[in-house]
Specification:
113 residues; mainly alpha; 58% helix; extended
């Protein structure tokens, strides 16, 4: 018997808002208000506030006291860090694939995007 437990509401709200940022529904410096998120995604006050705390701690949003919460823009430094991380991780992945003679279908992988 498979009894899957749904994620807590704050995690569901976090995932929805984060995906909206990543997909461009919310853009750089856009305000993210409780009313807007309620209307777009039907997320209530407490999960919304808890999700924003997590998103702010991870650097996805920033808050201005008495003004609101906004989408944090991606900076050149963020991109530089991302590519540095890729330079560290990807050669190891390639080496593992070669060492273990792992074959994959690039067309299949591309279709899964």
């Amino acid at each position: 018997m498979n009894l899957s437990v749904p994620a807590p509401l704050k995690i569901q709200a976090y995932n929805i808002i984060k995906e909206a940022i990543i997909s461009g529904i919310f853009r750089d410096h856009d305000p993210i208000t409780e009313k807007l998120v309620q209307e777009k995604f039907n997320i209530s006050r407490t999960p919304f506030r808890e999700a924003l705390q997590i998103l702010e701690s991870e650097g996805w949003v920033y808050s201005i006291q008495y003004k609101g919460t906004y989408v944090k823009p991606i900076t050149l430094e963020d991109l530089h860090e991302l590519f540095e991380l890729r330079l560290i991780v990807e050669p190891g992945i390639l080496e593992y694939v070669i060492d273990h003679n792992i074959k994959f279908n690039a067309v299949y992988l591309a279709s899964k995007k």
